[in-house]
Amino acid sequence: MKLIQIDAFTAERFSGNPAAVCLLPVPRDEQWMQLVAREMNLSETAFVSRRPSNSGAGAGFDLRWFTPSVEVALCGHATLASAHALWELGELGPRELARFHTKSGLLTAERRDGLIELDFPATVAEAADPPAGLADALGVSPVYVGKSRFDYLVEVDGEDVVRKLTPDIVRIKTLPVRGVMVTSRANTPGWDFVSRFFAPAAGVDEDPVTGSAHCCLTPYWSQKLGRTEMIARQLSARGGTLRLRLAGDRVKLGGHAVTVLRGELLA
User: Fold this and answer.
1) Terminal-residue alpha carbon distance, the chain
2) Taking Cα atoms as reference points, which of 105, 33, 104, 101 lies closest to residue 70?
3) Which of 12, 54, 109, 217 is the most exposed place for a label (fewest CB within 10 A)?
4) Do 170 and 102 belong together in one domain?
5) What is the largest CA-CA distance in the chain?
6) Structural domain boundaries enclosing 137
């Protein structure tokens, strides 16, 4: 089986968020996919299999995402990486739309303005009381706390606060959510807002660049900034940049991708 490692939301190798993409000639069982993801030991491994042409709903591909410890319901960077792999390997034509059938419904990817743009559902955060220990675990005084169906959203006072966070990962892991996104307005020219994302409960202490978190951050900052198009930077050690568009109840996530490794999975 073809196995490719791709850095997503970056145009430079060894930055952005690495994802493994496994192209399956036939679907495999969940336990096997989890073992492969644990072997890859990246924040996500994507498993892509072509749907039969008579399956309806526009055919396309089935797509599932696994961290080293659990399957997740939505993942942006590994979807971007999967689309990049399909175009690069000739599984899709250069102008062909990538259609992925997932646990979060139909997701698409297209080449647009030199980037790959994903079409994902918006996941709006509602204002919420911070759970006990959240502020202490992050070591910050939140300006705002919200909760989406996946994560907590915590706004803090300034880019420098986000950049210097040293959270207590053990305490964050006890929270009853997938993860915690910490965000602020950007001070750096060219960026509208910044963030970091911590998901130890899903087996990822800090995710380098998190597309699914921006499905929540985009409507949040769109309302605060009065804009539907924004540039975001995730301030992990690897770092990554996303071009964002809010389109009703959908979020358009744009970014680059670059292949780092190609191989065969012998399993």
Assistant:
1) 8
2) 33
3) 54
4) no
5) 54
6) 126-248
Residue 14: Cβ-neighbour burial (10 angstroms; 0-12, 13-18, 19+):
exposed
- Based on the number of CB atoms within 10 Å of its own CB, is 65 exposed (0-12), middle (13-18) or buried (19 or more)? buried
- What is the reported pTM? 0.95
Tens-place pLDDT, residues 26-68: 999 999 999 999 999 999 999 999 998 777 666 899 999 999 9
Cα 123 to Cα 219: distance, rounded to the nearest angstrom: 8
Which of 30, 44, 71, 88 is labelled catalytic?
A: 44
Q: Are residues 78 and 59 in the same domain?
A: yes
User: 133-178, pLDDT tens digit by residue?
Assistant: 999 999 999 999 999 999 999 999 999 999 999 999 999 999 999 9
Q: How far apart are CA 175 and CA 132, in angstroms?
A: 9
Residues with Cβ within 8 Å of 158's Cβ and at least 6 positions away in sequence, in order, are: 184, 185, 187
Structural domain tally of the chain?
2
| Residue 264 falls in the annotated catalytic set | no
**CA distance linking residue 155 with residue 162, whole number of Å:** 9
**Together in a domain, 41 and 138:** no
